[in-house]
User: Fold this.
Amino acid sequence: MDIVTRIRSQWDRLTAAATALTGAATLVVGWRGVSGTPYPAEQLPYVVSAGLGSLFLLGISTALWLSADLRDEWRKLDRIEQALRAAGGADAAALAGSQDGNGAVVAPPARERAASVSPGSAASPAEPERSAPTPFGHEEVR
Assistant:
């Protein structure tokens, strides 16, 4: 894989690393400015500009890195789902449900699930248990 393709595929991690380095450098510059004077009135501009600026940059860096990790996890889940569908065929698709227009997996309608379970069997859905009314007059459903 050439360097340009690698940069394009990992742009968020590269940006996160650059932002983290910039935030760390800003923090060091601010520390040097604060340590150079004993007067709080002269330290305050360094604390506000460098301290808060570096926290902001480090926060952006963290968000970008976590976003990249989440995208990798979604790619893994997509590969696992494709492998399951290829291995199981229609059975895996029936267990996973169907996909809506956005690619999200949705469960089959309740009447299709209920039709596959005979009444009185151990797998049939039971009535929910209801407890005593709460102080606000609503019943809790278990």
Q: What stands out?
A: The mean pLDDT is 79. Helices lie at 3-9, 11-35, 40-88, 90-96, 110-115. Strands lie at 98-99, 105-106, 130-133, 139-141.
